[in-house]
């Protein structure tokens, strides 16, 4: 007997976030705000009486209700996932047929294409133009021409930071004969969500996450929001105990404080604005360089020095993301922003031997 892995797994390696030890981490678009003490006290209470010996609620009812209430939507339209990441894999593996084609618009969140390839669904990659926005007419045309069965994209987009206006997203959904997976992971930082009208479409799934604006990346909690037909299907195919009970209870407790969450988002946006402004000043006049506008909690900079700066920052203990000739920097605390700006400014100074 001999066994060897399937062809499609050749060359795949386990996901590694930016490796190494860093004093400042602005590489993963997390919230820079950790839970305050008053909130932790409540969480200790939860743990002190927690039923560790019981399986979690299959439908994650309480946390779904509180999350839906934050947005004023119907909790029955939500399916909870172990991060929205799990939901992406679930959609690709269970809602698409064998070999059906998926379209992504690059650059975008890499997991859409990644899971599609693992599930042996061919991926059609439509490139974005110089300004990194989505050309909706081109998406519609290509989706029809290539008969794709699903279109995945993030809005606002990670890693570009660009947003597509509601009216354009509506037109896209209505014009393609495919499932549209609209990943609103960063929509808490912008105002063009389609959550309230999800039932107007038979081909729409909106993904949301608690990992970014809500500051709960450690807990792994995301939601798929869709009409009852799609929601039924998602709940039928998901792993029954996909969201652990501790995550459900802790997130439900945090969601009792919507004003606290809104205040965190305002704070993150202030940090983002400052970072954006300072980076624009810092890179002003540099050749072939562009600091993009942003609808998210991070800033994208195109620079021929991206690789060198990424490495030089790493040596100074500052983690950012380098993607294809760009740096992506998440908004941090005042001290963290200061650290990355100082480090960048030092690197950019003429005569600096590190770059
Ligand atoms: C971070 C991110 C996610 C992942 O969210 P999880 O809920 O933590 O799995 C999904 N989509 C985009 C675009 C992201 O940037």
From TrEMBL:
Catalytic activity of the protein: L-histidinol phosphate + 2-oxoglutarate = 3-(imidazol-4-yl)-2-oxopropyl phosphate + L-glutamate
Keywords noted in UniProt: Amino-acid biosynthesis, Aminotransferase, Histidine biosynthesis, Pyridoxal phosphate, Transferase
Enzyme Commission number, as recorded: 2.6.1.9
Chain positions with N6-(pyridoxal phosphate)lysine modification: 212
Keyword Amino-acid biosynthesis: yes
Presence of keyword GTP-binding: no
GO MF annotations, alphabetized: histidinol-phosphate transaminase activity
Protein family per UniProt: Belongs to the class-II pyridoxal-phosphate-dependent aminotransferase family. Histidinol-phosphate aminotransferase subfamily.
Subunit structure: Homodimer.
Protein name listed in UniProt: Histidinol-phosphate aminotransferase
């Amino acid at each position: 007997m001999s066994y060897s892995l399937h062809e499609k797994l050749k060359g795949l390696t386990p996901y590694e976030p930016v490796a190494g030890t860093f004093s400042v981490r602005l590489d993963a678009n997390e919230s820079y705000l950790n839970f305050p003490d008053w909130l932790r006290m409540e969480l200790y209470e939860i743990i002190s009486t927690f039923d560790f010996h019981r399986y979690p609620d299959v439908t994650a009812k309480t946390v779904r209700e509180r999350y839906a209430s934050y947005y004023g939507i119907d909790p029955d339209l939500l399916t909870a996932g172990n991060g929205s990441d799990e939901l992406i894999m679930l959609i690709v593996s269970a809602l698409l047929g064998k070999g059906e084609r998926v379209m992504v618009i690059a650059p975008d969140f890499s997991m859409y294409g990644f899971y599609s390839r693992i599930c042996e669904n061919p991926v059609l990659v439509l490139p974005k133009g110089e300004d990194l926005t989505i050309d909706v007419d081109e998406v519609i045309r290509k989706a029809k021409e290539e008969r794709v069965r699903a279109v995945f994209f993030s809005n606002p987009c990670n890693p570009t930071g660009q947003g597509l206006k509601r009216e354009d997203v509506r037109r896209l959904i209505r014009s393609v004969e495919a499932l549209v997976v609209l990943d609103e992971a960063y929509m808490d930082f912008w105002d063009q969500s389609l959550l309230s009208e999800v039932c107007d479409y038979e081909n729409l799934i909106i993904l949301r996450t608690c990992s970014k604006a809500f500051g709960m990346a450690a807990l792994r909690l995301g939601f798929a929001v869709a009409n009852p037909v799609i929601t039924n299907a998602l709940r039928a195919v998901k792993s029954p105990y996909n969201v652990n009970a501790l995550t459900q209870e802790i997130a439900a407790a945090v969601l009792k404080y919507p004003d606290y969450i809104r205040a965190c988002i305002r704070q993150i946006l202030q940090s983002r604005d400052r970072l954006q402004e300072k980076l624009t000043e810092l890179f002003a006049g540099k050749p072939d360089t562009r600091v993009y506008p942003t609808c998210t909690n991070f800033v994208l900079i195109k620079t021929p020095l991206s690789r060198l700066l990424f490495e030089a920052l790493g040596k100074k203990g500052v983690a950012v993301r380098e993607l294809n000739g760009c740096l992506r920097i998440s908004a941090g605390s005042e001290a963290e922003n200061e650290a990355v700006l100082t480090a960048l400014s030092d690197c950019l100074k003429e005569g600096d031997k590190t770059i």
